[in-house]
Design a protein that fits this description.
Helix content: 25-40%
Number of strands: 10
Distance between the termini: 61 Å
Strand content: 15-25%
Largest sheet: 6 strands, mixed
Strand order of the largest sheet: 1-2-10-7-4-5
Number of helices: 8
Shape: elongated
Length: 302
């Protein structure tokens, strides 16, 4: 039994709490509480949950968890690895877990844009050839004109005819002859996978965000789930370390940062949104429950 475990157990017994009662208070399984008291952290879901469970245990028996973490920091497992593997440096090519399906989905938006551009050019060509180059005008039926002259007692002079023609030539073009104004579709942001690293029970995925003027990050728990999340900026300043439950969400503005770090304790109950677009996980949450996400913001040059 470790010194930290002995200290927690002593405080629990002073409060007159049994392990079953403590389990009801903290909602931590009894076997995990026993593991904390015995210093057997291997039975816990992971290092991240070890610190979270110790914090809840300490608060339940009236101890300050920050003081405990500082006093017994050599016994408590670290919750977050600050240094990322070298292979997570910028990589130009995407290497998804499922190659064929992911590449097809990646090329699909580009194909749609290409079709739209070709259709737009065809429309411009048609309008120019029809209304600008040909200069079509209504045809005159000569047979009817001859019959009108025979039946009429008046003779139209050549001067009068020229005036009529000149009036028609100077008429204002109709709205049908004007070229329509086509608005260009705004460029959509692009989120690409730069690399995936798996180490033990954890997985780390690095993404790049481009074609975006801002970087707003939102992290939330699913409607009926809960997850412990940690969010840090490019200077490793921790902005959030909290348990989110039942749809609870947190939003941060990383527009002035080069990247954002997110760590999810239960990735199957975690949802991440980048400027309103949901982030797709490259590694299945059923495969790796604890996952780290690094989002690099490639700012648009003005």
């Amino acid at each position: 039994m470790t010194e930290l475990g002995s200290r927690l157990r002593l405080e629990r017994e002073k409060k007159g709490l049994s392990l079953d009662e403590l389990q009801n208070i903290t909602r931590i399984q009894k076997k995990y509480l026993i593991g904390i008291e015995e210093g057997n952290y291997e039975i816990l879901p992971g290092k991240f949950y070890a610190r979270a469970f110790i914090k809840q245990y300490a608060e339940a028996v009236g101890l300050e968890h920050e003081i405990l973490f500082e006093e017994y920091k050599k016994e408590i497992p670290l919750a977050y690895e600050e240094d990322l593997p070298e292979q997570l440096s910028r990589v130009s090519s995407r290497k998804p877990v499922s190659a064929s399906g992911s590449k097809a989905m990646e090329l699909f938006p580009k194909i749609l844009v290409a079709i739209f551009v070709v259709a737009f050019l065809v429309l411009i060509w048609y309008l120019v050839t029809t209304y600008v180059w040909t200069g079509e005008k209504p045809s005159v039926n000569n047979n009817n004109a001859q019959v009108d002259i025979k039946e009429s007692d008046e003779i139209v002079s050549p001067d009068t005819q020229e005036d009529d023609v000149s009036d028609d030539d100077t008429a204002t073009p109709s709205e049908e002859d004007e070229e329509p104004v086509v608005e260009e579709e705004p460029v959509r942001q692009e989120i690409a996978v730069l690399g995936v690293s798996v180490a033990g029970k954890e997985a780390t995925t690095t993404y790049s965000l481009s074609n975006a003027e801002a970087f707003e990050l939102k992290v939330s728990a699913t409607s009926e789930g809960e997850t412990w999340v940690k969010i840090a900026d490019d200077s490793n300043n921790v902005l959030l370390s909290k348990l989110l439950k039942n749809g609870e969400e947190q939003t941060f503005d990383f527009t002035n940062a080069s990247e954002a770090h997110v760590r999810a304790g239960r990735s199957m109950d975690t949802e991440i949104f980048v400027n309103g677009e949901k982030l797709e996980f490259e590694v299945s949450p059923e495969e790796k429950t604890v996952q780290n996400f690094v989002i690099q913001f490639i700012k648009t040059e003005e």
